[in-house]
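Budget justification aside, the reviewers requested a transparent look at the raw inputs and outputs of the sequence design task funded under Objective 1. We therefore reproduce one unedited record. The lines immediately below are the structure tokens for a 28-residue chain.
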């Protein structure tokens, strides 16, 4: 299955982090 991708905890952390960042940007 090719090279291993990031595990789910890391994926969720990145997804949540980017979502929080976007929300923060929109608040301004």
């Amino acid at each position: 299955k090719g090279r291993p991708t990031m595990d789910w905890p890391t994926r969720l952390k990145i997804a949540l982090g980017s979502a929080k960042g976007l929300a923060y940007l929109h608040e301004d």
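The helical segments are 8-27. The chain is about 70% helix and 0% strand. Computational costs for records of this kind are itemized in the attached budget.
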